[in-house]
């Protein structure tokens, strides 16, 4: 063995605190990492690239438990890759969050009785920027508390000049390609916000409403009439048809005729359409094309008029009735009351529970509303996004999510990209005095006298460019050449269809751009090679977290109470591809215990001189040393395989059980005897233990970076785990003999401990004992370890065996004779033995019955018969052994 380096490990143990107190360590440690530049990516590096862009949280947001999961998984991936020798870019940033931010600033103005109109567009936008500088981005310091290893020098914001340039560039390219157009179509409208909102900003809730069945046509049953049902009776003011199924015999004669509208007096047609379900309700439906998505499609098919009966605030307009000017909900009551007075209400069902879309921002029911908006024609873009996955250019993990991806992109509707807001990227369309329409690119100016479109773009438009706009596109940059396409996108499956789809559409649209293909052989580029989809965080009982249930988890509370490592390990250990994860305080407590166990184990090791170094020859090591080194190699391979497949939970479980069950509970205990041995044996143990701990801390660092950094620096004296190397394969074959000996030793100790427990012996109470057969079992070297861990002492001259425990191991049976006089409850021992005897006799009788059954013996395969005979022999031996022991206790 090589000469040992001066032992400074005890001093390093003293440098560690008595216990791990994360609140006293984590913040300062993180700032040291940032100051050292560990997380800054070098675009000129010759290392292989690994890049991830952070899904940009809203500038108005706070770190919620979903963010904490996202960030933990991304940090785990990037920290590991950095340790593996990659040039890593984890690029952070924030989204300007058009609706949320504008709403927040408007609320602040309202405190002083002001509105945005009081300031005008330019001044109001200045106020939003002021808010962003002063109050926005609280999530950034929360990310620091979590330990995010992002490159803060490249922090981006979707309203940065560079990203705004990218937005204008792609808008013009899409517009020039005929993929952006303006049209009056149905949108999700928020009367409170007075803007269209995206599908992802609509949350559906079950509400108590009313189902009103009303009668069109004559009130005379003998005259033509139709009964329809609706939950929004006020929209009947905009009805332009009644639809029935073409094959419905009840309405054959009415198809093609008209009925008088009960309130407006207009004549509206009865049309036939296959969309109508003749089995549902009366088989007839009212058609309001300007205020219902399905009705709109039917209106297009049948060329129906589409009167818009609501203004931007949700008030009735243009009907020429007494309801004009009423709020939509006020009109709902008034219209129903008038129809009832005229005898046209056939039936009312109140309350009637149905699903209603609500604005995520304002909380109000959204209103489907016909509106002039800007749209992206998605057919070719969506096909390209689907083909990228079909062709394997982008791989979705887990693969089980692929069908949902294809279902979405293959059936995508055109995308409404305009919003009636002031905060955001203003649409680069200008209108001339004679009705001219031009699109102005980032390096162009509109002619004098032209007026810019007042709307801004959907926030998802700019965030759809995130993977490449953040690296400088449309300009050629070292970042794009080095780090694009990104390696993986980590996000929840719930936004697969919104954000991920938009990034894929835009990314494939510019896939042939010279700036993106530079240095890559001219090959088309996709925004990311892998998409990893994780599930939603639920409470410990598997229920969805919500404010109403009060079961949500504030990650900052957990960080303050338990530390960032505990939060991170809890989330990562529960994460699996595509599956939801359940976490609660019991899981956090288990993770905290694990962190504490790791801290105490390392401190114990340091106090005993553990240090990593050149390992002695395998022949000079004990069975325990060889076993723990081999198990470390197996676990390292398992962790690598799991993390390569985004199986974070599997990797964490492997490390948890190895570190706790094998390293701490077994090997550390076995080392106590080895540390007490001669100098060379103790030194070898110090190096083995130090080497194993070194590797374990490296393997755990991506998930729990703070405690591992503190312990590793104390153990090795190294600069930082952030830039340390990831453990590599040892190249040494597993020693199966040592593995079996340690397995036998564990079984032997476990059985002795079980006997002690049955006898009610205190854990620390030592019992004189003889171990017979260790040499035959090949465990002579482990005698002292067995005695130490089983709390046995050498027998004295007055030793008299009062109990015997026989343990069948792989190579032999070891007999443990114990002198429990004065220490064992004899009555309890008799009861235990009688219970064991009954079980052995039952087994003996069962095997005898089977072997005495001629029919069974005639049909059973020989191996099965042989196995039963073996069981019979064991049972017979047990009956004899236990019977003899009971006789001893009885003095016979």
How would you describe the overall organization of this protein?
With 892 residues, the chain is of the alpha/beta class. The strands form ten sheets. A four-stranded antiparallel sheet has the order 6-5-14-16. A four-stranded mixed sheet has the order 10-11-9-12, with helices on one face. The protein has a four-stranded mixed sheet with strand order 27-26-29-28, with helices on one face. A hairpin with a 4-residue loop joins strand 28 (803-808) and strand 29 (813-819). It starts with 8 loop residues before the first helix and ends with a helix. 42% of the residues are buried.
Per-chain topology:
Blueprint: H1 9-15, H2 26-36, E1 49-53, H3 65-83, E2 87-91, E3 93-94, H4 98-111, H5 116-119, H6 121-134, H7 138-146, E4 156-157, H8 161-176, E5 180-190, E6 195-197, E7 202-217, E8 225-230, E9 241-244, E10 258-260, E11 267-272, E12 284-287, H9 293-302, H10 328-341, E13 345-359, E14 367-376, H11 379-390, E15 395-397, H12 402-409, E16 415-416, E17 418-419, E18 429-431, E19 437-439, E20 451-452, E21 456-457, H13 459-463, H14 466-469, H15 478-483, E22 486-492, H16 496-509, H17 514-517, E23 528-534, E24 537-538, H18 555-562, H19 564-574, E25 581-582, H20 585-607, H21 623-644, H22 648-675, H23 679-700, H24 705-716, H25 736-759, E26 767-772, H26 783-789, E27 792-793, E28 803-808, E29 813-819, H27 826-851, H28 854-859, H29 862-890
Parallel strand pairs: 1-2, 3-4, 9-11, 15-23, 22-23, 24-25, 26-27
Antiparallel strand pairs: 5-6, 5-14, 7-8, 7-13, 9-12, 10-11, 14-16, 17-21, 18-19, 18-20, 26-29, 28-29
Helix pairs in contact: 1-20, 3-19, 11-12, 11-16, 18-19, 19-20, 19-22, 20-22, 20-24, 21-22, 21-23, 21-25, 22-23, 22-26, 23-24, 27-29
